Amino acid sequence: FELTGDYKIILPLMLGVVISTVIAQGLYRESIYTKKVHRAGVSLPTEDSENIMRRVSVGDVMTTDFPTVPASMRVADLWKRFETSDHRGFPVVNDAGELEGVVTVGDVEKAYRYNKQSAPIGTVATRSVVVAYPDQSIHDALLALGAQEVGRIPVVSRDNPRKLIGVLRRHDIIRAYTQNADEGNLPTTLQDG
Question: In what side-by-side order are the strands of the sheet with 69-70?
């Protein structure tokens, strides 16, 4: 079009571009841009990397012995526990062991700002938390999280959504992905990259 300046050529030109694109995609798996990046030694993620997260269930990789804290514990006592632990948050359970929410270092810091050191954790914990189910795929659990910045997801029974059976941590997800990649479930280019 730029060469001829003729508007009549636009429709045949568009049709030609669409046909050539469809043919090129059928003949070549990579575009000229991804091929150039691949030749430079950079590995790009493929659909296989997403498939791993669809094949692995939350129950396969969750941590079942993750520590919990009682809702009746005082904020000051939890602060001491955070200081001696490498955890940044805990599931909060009631006296019956049922999930009440999740408490993080941020929740405790906020409680200290408002002079609530002697308040029970149950009053400062986040009560509406995203949960995962053991039969759910990691992919679906991550989709449920959306853009939320959480380091752990309580895993509960589908029959009783308050029955805590484990915690899915970022570390668990990374370990599952790495193990499946090491077992040859990914193309070599992804394993090397």
Answer: 69-70, 89-93, 99-104
